[in-house]
Task: inverse folding
């Protein structure tokens, strides 16, 4: 049974089928946003959701059977735990006021596309791996915002109290400037009190926007290289284990074939 499960789970056609079901589930979730379509085909959509969930349950059972009895191999993979959690949540009987939760869980099933596609898994792993480095960049950004907000308060709170009258409003104004949305209007309002106010805004846009964005990109690229190296090392460690498992399966099949031949010879001798 475990050998058959391994063959099914390892088959590329099975993987493509699961990906197709995830995409189809996403399409159904989108169709449910149309009241017209729900009125006409709501029952069919509901049955389709049940069938997709049944397929996901079968997938989980096959993956568990493929590693039986070493369940840790399945639950030791974070992506398998992610898929298992979503399937379990989908099986919970949400009804009444919790019906909205059931719809949200169906939407979460679309996220399984991340775990089904290796490239998407690499992107997510990169972002998670980059979080510590991004924390230091965010700390630097917060320090920069704080310095400019205090400076902006002292420079412009009399001329433009609505935008610079308090530390909170100054921080919010700087956030608007950092998004490059209407920042020129804020600058021209400040220049009515000081003709050199443009230096404050130009320096903040250059340092606070362009330089910080490049820092985030640098952290993500560095994390991507590290994640690729870690994944390559894991693949190299996994290859011998897979080779040993394949050899054991071949030996088991050969032994079973030998037993059958001996039984046939014994029967012929009698």
Result:
């Amino acid at each position: 049974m475990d050998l058959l499960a391994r063959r099914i789970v390892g088959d590329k056609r099975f993987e493509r089928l699961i990906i197709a079901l995830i995409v189809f589930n996403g399409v159904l979730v989108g169709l449910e946003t149309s009241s017209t379509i729900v009125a006409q085909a709501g029952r069919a959509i509901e049955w389709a959701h049940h069938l997709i969930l049944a397929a996901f349950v079968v997938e989980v059972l096959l993956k568990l059977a493929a590693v039986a009895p070493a369940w840790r191999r399945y639950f030791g993979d974070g992506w398998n735990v992610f898929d298992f959690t979503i399937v379990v949540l989908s099986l919970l009987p949400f009804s009444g006021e919790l019906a909205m939760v059931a719809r949200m869980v169906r939407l979460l099933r679309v996220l399984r596309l991340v775990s089904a596609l290796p490239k998407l898994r690499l992107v997510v792993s990169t972002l998670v791996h980059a979080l510590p480095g991004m924390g230091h960049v965010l700390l630097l950004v917060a320090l920069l915002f704080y310095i400019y907000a205090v400076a902006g308060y002292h420079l412009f709170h009399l001329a433009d109290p609505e935008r610079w009258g308090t530390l909170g409003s100054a921080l919010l104004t700087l956030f608007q400037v950092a998004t490059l949305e209407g920042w020129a209007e804020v600058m021209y309002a400040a220049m009515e009190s000081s003709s050199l106010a443009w230096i404050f805004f130009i320096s903040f846009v250059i340092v606070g926007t362009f330089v910080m964005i490049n820092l985030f990109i640098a952290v993500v690229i560095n994390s991507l290289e590290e994640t690729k190296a870690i994944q390559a090392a894991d693949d190299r460690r996994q290859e011998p284990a897979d080779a040993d498992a394949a050899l054991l399966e071949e030996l088991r099949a050969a032994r079973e074939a030998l037993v059958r031949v001996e039984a046939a010879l014994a029967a012929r001798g009698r």
Remarks:
- The chain has a mean pLDDT of 82.
- The two ends are 33 Å apart (CA to CA).
- The chain has two domains: 2-116, 121-256.
